[in-house]
Design brief:
five-stranded parallel beta sheet, 4 helices
Length: 116
């Protein structure tokens, strides 16, 4: 059974590119361009991994992670953040809120695959 990945990014071109690449590699990919949609889709089909841009218009990635922590079925799903920042707030690395990894933009396609 393929690992389920939920991609969240407001850049539709990047979202499509990432989805196609990960689907080609055999992952079961769901996409969302809005935080609200990602949460709803995540509740319906719990992913094995969220891949999320940090800079989103509604809620940023850190706020998204805090929101997920309030939903028992999603609280421990690991998140791979795609960011231009090197460091996230320290509380996001707390093991009680699930695994958080950061992939700094721009990144090579191989780096994304390795992180996933």
């Amino acid at each position: 059974m393929a690992a389920k990945i939920l991609l969240l990014d407001n850049d539709l071109r990047l979202l499509t590119h990432l989805s196609e690449r990960l689907t080609y590699l055999g992952y079961d990919v769901t996409t969302a361009s809005r935080v609200h949609d990602a949460v709803l889709k995540g509740i319906v089909v719990t992913p094995d991994l969220f891949v999320c841009d940090v800079m989103m218009p509604e809620l940023n990635g850190w706020e998204f992670k805090r929101l997920l922590a309030q939903i028992p079925s999603l609280a421990t799903v690991p998140i791979l953040f795609l960011s231009t920042h090197n460091i996230l707030p320290a509380e996001l690395y707390d093991p009680t809120v699930g695994l958080v990894e950061v992939l700094k933009k721009p990144y090579a396609g191989e780096a994304l695959v390795a992180a996933v």
